What does this fold into?
Amino acid sequence: MLIGVPLETSRGETRVAVTPETAKKLVGQGHRLQVETGAGVAASATDAAYTAAGCEITDKAGAFGAELVLKVRSPDANELALMKPGTFLVGMLNPFDAAGLAAIAAAGVTAFALEAAPRTTRAQSMDVLSSQANIAGYKAVIVAADRYQRFFPMLMTAAGTVKAARVVVLGVGVAGLQAIATAKRLGAVIEASDVRPSVKEQVESLGAKFIDVPYETAEEKEAAEGVGGYARPMPPSWLERQKVEVAKRVAQADVVISTALIPGRAAPVLITEEMVRSMKPGSVIVDLAAGKGADGVGGNCPLTEADRTVVKHGVTLVGETNLPALVAADASALYARNVLDFLKLVLPKDGAFTVPMDDDIVAACLVAQSGEVRRK
Ligand code: NAD
It folds into this structure.
């Protein structure tokens, strides 16, 4: 099959959907790859490396003109115009972006959004949310350490003792767990909060303290169990008690990493302006939910500004919305392996693309076919 790998053009996007490593495997399976000039350069993959892997280097029209196009982000209108009806597309296409999916469907493209894969054991090797969130959690701490004007570890020096940084992690999914692990390696003292009770043990196993907010009603307990491993919106009664506990920790924190999300909904507000005011000057908040707040601008903190770093009330708020793109080479390497694993379900060796709807992963990821959006 003719496979196209375009250069990503979304602002700040440095990742690429196929690396020379995965390209070599696809070529070995009998496919022909057309990689756009410079597609991997920002992720440390040169055109020469793709050529050595057996790919042809082409222009934008060549990459989008393939039978199967492998992308990181959704194609824009100009890119869609280069795709023939009947083209197959695999990428992180944002299954909650109704307008974006409608445009893809209108172009007659058969599209698969990898973020929609179920969080099951079989889907783990193609779980792009996990592979990228893991990187985001790591980089969030590195960015925070860079912005923070003090040490993370406790240090005893001849010039005196330096206290360890206090880090609070809000939302302990894949990104939050990696943030805890990374902050721990740097020597911080960490406390973490999540709505899901199963998280407590994981937090403690990483050497952090769980901020306990007991469930007082059956409704609270049921909501906290979530659905499919994901959180559901918690009743206001629980959120109020969580706010009191979180506010105490945030006031003492040097660094807050917030990652709390509920799929398909606005990010919950966990750090109010009042809490930001209570923080010490020089403290840092890295808000991974930036741009996902109710207004589409704020995140877990309403003062966060998407894709900007701002100082408010003496606190530095980092609103970087694409932290994995700051670790482009490894983020691409892991994403490209996720893509390769997904292709095993739809693209047999040497064969034509198939859409086996009896496969739960394929069925969940299919977002556009025959001019129709397949999910909302
Ligand atoms: P996510 O990015 O959707 O959300 C991040 C975290 O925010 C979650 O832990 C969520 O519980 C938390 N959160 C939501 N509202 C909150 C609030 N008000 N206060 C505090 N925290 C709040 O989550 P994710 O990283 O995508 O992980 C979702 C789930 O999927 C987790 O249970 C994870 O363990 C699971 N998972 C399973 C597999 C698998 O089995 N293959 C793979 C990856 C992840």
